[in-house]
């Protein structure tokens, strides 16, 4: 509402010639450049990974299980599976806790605790990934090693990632729950539904689109996370066949090998970056669609 | 009865998350504080960082952030002003610019690292330097900064624009003298949030600003950021854990200070808006 009022009537009138014209032209060039940045990022990823496409193509990545760059073996499959396993595991853990947190703040917590929970989420979101990695490496990994060595494992990565994406899930779910029209909840109450019934069968379905959007964003974040995963997952290139197996994520592989990679090896790292970017774009687009749907429904 | 079980589960899971958070925070404080001292902040690292301090690392971090801010502020502010005031509403150009910025905001930081390495370090020949690291971070914080600055400008009460028009001010001077000053707190808050995000960054800096932990002599020298220092100490230096925790504590203190400043500015600004209305 506010936006539409402002956009048409209250815009400043520009004199087409003179200062305003020059400023407008200059600023639109800046805006064009900023939009060009995305193009530039994709262009350079493609440019640097070009040797892969011209000399072998995607099947080189997908055919083998082996990653021995020095012998020309570039099988990315185990790392793709490891990344997907980490993402799936962390989402499975973070969604119930994040959703429960949002329900807690919206329906159960007294104002003081609701505020405290939101502060905890903000602080958790502000902890740098390298600090999560440090904590995971020095506290979590030894604990897991007690159960089954070596400790650096898929499980450690899942636990750390779950903590990192928890604020995203909790805060987006909370925003979705807050946006439910009052009368829907009043209706549920008037039908004498139990508190649990109101939440599970009225509030959550009504906020569904927003919650799903938040989960998709959290998935994108988990998939793109590098440092924490690199520090706790053990970085052995193999299929994730057990929770306690050390595995290497796609992002970690890039960070580990960029320093000395040359030629086709370097190109294959850029190609995996391109692949990651593609998947993350897809997830963000789905999240955007979900939030649009949520917006239309609430109108 | 099942209603009570449900409520118990909700309370327990919220308490569990709070407990885990306190556990992490407690570990960082307990392990970081003993190693932290004024001399730790003001000395050169020795023995690969196991002893000595982090002074050159702090200087490099500050320089990288300064480059990022010096580039992203004028550029980002220009784009935000264009989006909020000059672009024609409903036209394709503005909405597609917004869309690309939102997409850029979602690009993983390791991908920015790859891009920065290929474009700034190699293509533009800046090498592993504070300059290429700062420029890479500028690309990272630009989308977030532009969108918050645009939101701040759009939120300025529209009667101020009408007043400026009635006084016969041209658009440029109205933006310069009225809109930018009144949106300043929101713009600064967006900037501080961006800086906080940049301070935490590691993956984008490893292959752009590099690892060297000496005192940088110029912006073209390689410099090690604080987050990269923590990574190196914990992964590559055995016995570097306590120095890593002290550095982590420093890093978190800086980031929390940035976030609190941004929050205080936003609150103050919103408070003023409410008073005026």
Can you describe what's shown?
The complex is a heterodimer of chains A (299) and B (277). Chain A is mostly helical and 299 residues long. Chain A is built from 13 helices and two strands. The N and C termini of chain A lie close together (12 Å). Chain A has a two-stranded antiparallel ribbon. Chain A folds into two domains: 11-54; 67-298, MetI-like fold (Orthogonal Bundle). The N and C termini of chain B lie far apart (49 Å). Chain B has a two-stranded antiparallel ribbon. The mean pLDDT of chain B is 89. By secondary structure, chain B is mostly helical. Chain B has a single domain (36-276), classed as MetI-like (MetI-like fold, Orthogonal Bundle), CATH 1.10.3720.10. Chain B is globular. Helix content of chain B is 77%, strand content 1%. Chain B has helices spanning 2-32, 38-42, 55-86, 92-106, 109-123, 130-154, 158-166, 171-199, 203-206, 226-236, 241-276; strands at residues 45-46, 51-52. Chains A and B meet through α1, α2, α4, α5 and α6 of A and α1, α3, α4, α5 and α6 of B.
């Amino acid at each position: 509402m506010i936006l539409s009022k402002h956009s048409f009537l209250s815009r400043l009138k520009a004199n087409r010639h003179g200062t305003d014209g020059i400023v407008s032209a200059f600023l639109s060039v800046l805006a064009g450049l900023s939009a060009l940045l995305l193009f530039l990022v994709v262009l350079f990823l493609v440019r640097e990974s070009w040797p892969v496409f011209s000399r072998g193509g995607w099947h080189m990545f997908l055919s083998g299980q082996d990653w021995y760059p020095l012998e020309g073996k570039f099988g990315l499959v185990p790392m793709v599976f490891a990344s997907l396993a980490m993402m799936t595991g962390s989402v499975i853990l973070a969604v119930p806790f994040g959703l429960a947190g949002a329900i807690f703040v919206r329906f159960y917590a007294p104002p003081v605790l609701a505020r405290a929970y939101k502060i905890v989420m903000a602080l958790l979101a502000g902890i740098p990934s390298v600090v999560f990695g440090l904590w995971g490496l020095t506290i979590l990994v030894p604990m897991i090693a007690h159960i089954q060595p070596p400790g650096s494992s898929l499980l450690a990565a899942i636990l750390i990632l779950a903590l990192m994406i928890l604020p995203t899930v909790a805060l987006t779910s909370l925003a979705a729950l807050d946006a439910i029209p009052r009368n829907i909840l009043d209706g549920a109450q008037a039908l004498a539904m139990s508190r649990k019934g109101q939440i599970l069968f009225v509030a959550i379905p009504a906020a569904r689109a927003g919650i799903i959007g938040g989960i998709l964003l959290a998935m994108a974040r988990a998939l793109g996370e590098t440092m924490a995963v690199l520090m706790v997952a053990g970085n052995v290139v193999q299929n994730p066949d057990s929770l306690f197996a050390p595995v290497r994520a796609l992002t970690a592989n890039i960070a580990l090998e960029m320093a000395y990679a040359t030629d086709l090896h370097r190109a294959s790292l850029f190609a995996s970056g391109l692949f990651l970017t593609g998947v993350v774009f897809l997830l963000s687009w789905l999240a955007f669609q979900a939030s649009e749907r949520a917006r239309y429904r609430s109108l | 009865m099942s209603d009570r079980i449900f409520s118990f589960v909700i309370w327990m899971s919220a308490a569990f998350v709070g407990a885990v958070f306190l556990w992490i925070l407690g570990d960082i404080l307990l392990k970081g504080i003993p190693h932290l001292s004024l001399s730790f902040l003001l000395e050169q690292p020795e023995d690969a960082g196991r002893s000595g301090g982090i002074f050159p690392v702090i200087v490099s971090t500050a320089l990288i952030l300064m480059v990022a801010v010096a580039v992203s502020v004028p550029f980002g502010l220009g784009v935000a002003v264009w989006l909020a005031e000059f672009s024609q509403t409903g036209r394709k150009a503005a909405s597609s610019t917004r869309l690309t910025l939102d997409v850029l905001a979602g690009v993983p930081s390791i991908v920015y690292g790859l891009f920065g390495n290929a474009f700034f370090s190699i293509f533009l020949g800046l090498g592993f330097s504070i300059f290429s690291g700062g420029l890479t971070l500028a690309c990272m914080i630009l989308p977030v900064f532009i969108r918050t600055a645009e939101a701040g400008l759009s939120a300025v009460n529209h009667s101020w624009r009408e007043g400026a028009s009635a006084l016969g001010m041209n658009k440029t001077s109205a933006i310069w003298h009225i809109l930018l000053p009144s949106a300043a707190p929101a713009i600064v808050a967006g900037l501080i949030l961006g800086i906080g995000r940049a301070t935490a960054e590691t993956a984008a800096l490893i292959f752009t600003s590099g690892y060297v932990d000496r005192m940088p002599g110029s912006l073209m020298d390689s410099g090690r950021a604080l987050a990269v220092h923590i990574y190196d100490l914990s992964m590559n230096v055995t016995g570097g854990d306590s120095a890593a925790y002290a550095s982590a504590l420093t890093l978190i203190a800086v980031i929390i200070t940035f976030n609190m400043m941004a929050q205080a500015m936003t609150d103050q600004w919103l408070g003023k808006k409410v008073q005026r209305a």
